[in-house]
Amino acid sequence: MNDIDAWVQWWALPWRYAHPHWQILDASPALLRNQHAGASKSLGIAPCLPCAPTTSLMQLALAQPAHYDALLQRIERICRTTPSAARDDTQRLWCQRLARALHPQDWLEPADDPLQLLRAWLEPPVWQRLRLRFAPARIETLEQKPVQAISPAKLRTLWQTVLWHTRASDEGHNHADTPHD
């Protein structure tokens, strides 16, 4: 299956990729196929055609669960710069550079979940599907707060940069230690 086919399948049947605690998963796959509209409605997914997938969106939609943890940890390190926030000097330096460029220190309150920045960045139809990748209790808590008003350009820069850096790190490329004069 190519990436576009995987994207369309994820868009149409996002519960196949859902966190195990979502209740809909108790239903049989045949029932979910036959009751697509009901399953979507019970999960808060409005019916619509898929948006055009970007590389970033496909990377998010088709990622393994551990990948989300790594992404959100990087986001937290960037937005909450603390002396021990990064695992190593290279990570710390990369996070500091991005934080200096974006000034995200006011984006998250101390108790805020960095996942809310993903919610703020994504269009509602994408968020309705992607949120299923996380525990329902976490999403319920998150969605009780209004979406933050942060510059869309800054959010796009933050997420695309973190996604690129994560992909580059996974492939063994590290550009964070390159000196910049």
Topology:
Blueprint: H1 3-12, H2 29-34, H3 36-42, H4 55-61, H5 65-79, H6 89-102, H7 115-121, H8 124-130, H9 136-142, H10 152-170
Helix pairs in contact: 5-6, 5-10, 7-10
Organism: Pseudomonas fragi
Protein name: Putative type III secretion protein
Task: Characterise the protein shown here.
The chain has a domain at 51-170. Mean pLDDT is 82; it is low at 176-181. It is an all-alpha fold. It is globular. The protein contains ten helices and no strands. Helix content is 55%, strand content 0%. This is Putative type III secretion protein. It comes from Pseudomonas fragi.
Task: Name a few traits of the molecule.
181 residues; globular; disordered C terminus; mainly alpha
Strand fraction equals under 5%
Succession of helices and strands: HHHHHHHHHH
* Number of distinct helices: 10
Radius of gyration: 17 Å
Name the overall outline: globular
Secondary structure class reads mainly alpha
> How far do the termini sit from each other?
44 Å
Helix content: 40-55%
Largest sheet: none
Number of strands: 0
Rounded average pLDDT? 82
Q: Give the uncertain stretches in residue-range form.
A: 176-181
Protein name: Putative type III secretion protein
Organism: Pseudomonas fragi
